[in-house]
Amino acid sequence: MSNNGEVRWLCKAPASLISAGRGEAYCKFCRVSLRAQKHDLTKHLAEIKLVLNNAAHGSLKNIDHLCEMLKDIGKGSQLSKLRLHRTKCSKIILNVIAPGMLKELLDDLGEESYSILLDESTDVSTMKYMAYCIRYYSKKQKKIVTDFLGFNELLKCSCHSLNLVAAKASEQLPSNIEFLFKIQGIGLRIVHYA
Fold first, then answer.
1. Which of 5, 11, 170, 181 has the fewest Cβ atoms nearer than 10 Å?
2. Which residue has the higher pLDDT, 41 or 81?
3. pLDDT digit string, tens, across residues 100-144
4. So which domain of life are we looking at (predicted)?
5. Cα distance between residue 49 and residue 84, in whole Å
6. For residue 95, what pLDDT is reported?
């Protein structure tokens, strides 16, 4: 639900799903049919809110323990029927929350100028990764913001990996950005689109 009470995620299920007995309501974000009953819709929205909170403030490992604790605390209530673990949480983040957040970012970005920030790092298993973020002026927030876009595992050659990251970013972002990548230093690479 949005701040003004508008329900953007819910619509009437397609006729084929209704006739198959799979529910009358349809979640546009999760692409699943639901029974059009307040209990089912509230439960579905609660799962999405829990996943969003966990994605913003914790690790995926935490969701298993959090759900078990909520079930224990809420014995006899609807909380005792909660079924949300790492696998489902990961899928909701990947298939529901991330595309929605990317769409909001692109809507906010519009045709404004932006910068892509790339940073190479190594984890404890000595795997090398390159994370990429976007920095732009947000019309909604009225300030310059930096948002995480994703990361890729680095291959043998950093230059080749940089090219792959540029290609992946160009699939998500507006305008033609093939010309924009320049390497500036070894650790942090900053590029600018204008």
1. 5
2. 41
3. 888 888 888 887 888 888 777 776 777 777 778 888 889 888 999
4. Eukaryota
5. 12
6. 81
Report in angstroms the alpha-carbon separations of 80 from 68, 70, 88: 9, 7, 17
Six token digits for residue 9: 């995620």
Question: Which comes out higher in pLDDT, residue 5 or 95?
Answer: 95
Q: What is the dihedral of CA 165, 167, 169, 172, to 10 degrees?
A: -150
Cβ contact 121:128 at 8 Å: yes
| Contacts of residue 28, Cβ cutoff 8 Å, sequence gap at least 6 | 8, 9, 10, 11
Question: Is the Cβ–Cβ distance between 119 and 149 less than 8 Å?
Answer: no
Strands 143-153 and 128-138: antiparallel
Q: pLDDT value at position 96?
A: 80
Write out the two tokens for 57: 């403030």
**Sheet containing 32-34: which strands, arranged edge to edge?**
10-12, 25-27, 32-34
If you compute the radius of gyration of the chain from its CA atoms, what whole number of angstroms results?
Answer: 21
Angle separating helix axes 38-57 and 60-73, nearest 10 degrees: 140
